[in-house]
User: Fold this.
Amino acid sequence: MGWVVLGLLALASGLVLWRMRVAPALWSLVGAAMMLGAIGYSIQGRPGLAGVSAQEQRERRTIDPSLKELRQAMFGRFNFEESYFVAADALLSSGAVAPAAQVMLGGVYKAPKSAALWTWLGMMLVEKDGGTLSPAAKLAFEQGMRLAPKHPGPVFFYGLALARTNDFARTRELWLRALTLTPRDASFRQDIAVRLVLVDRLLEMQAQERRAGAGEPQ
Assistant:
């Protein structure tokens, strides 16, 4: 639905520019802005989030279904860790953000050597702190990577958390590492590769905007 809305906005913008007789040379700037928003939506958007009031959005959260599928592909299904994931997801969707983080904290207390549980604890702490990467969340992600240094999961989700803080350079570094760690026949390899291409394009567009703002040649 988000992409449909984006397409309608692009069409409406074009009609407005045409009716206002804006010079065609300026159309590229509008197109670049739309593309920047589209790439950002692809990386950070949550299409599963219900369209509710701003107050309710602050209280209710949800994990993108595609990320749940990616989590299952990386960490497995019907295992010990999955029971904690499902419980945390349910609490998050009901608005109990802090209890969702507490569930994951209980998980790592029960299984302190589980890289998957440490990784998702990091994700829940990011949710709890309103999309920011607190020292506690950073510690959780880093512990996940220490426990499974050759597993792409902790690296990928750490990169995702950084993307939500707009640290796209560091995100690219981690996602490239995650792709390198992913076997070529893994079902989720393409998902990581696509996100890496999108963040590359976003970084390129940001660099072009900085050069344009500084008056440098493109």
Remarks:
- Residues 142 and 154 are 8 Å apart (CA to CA).
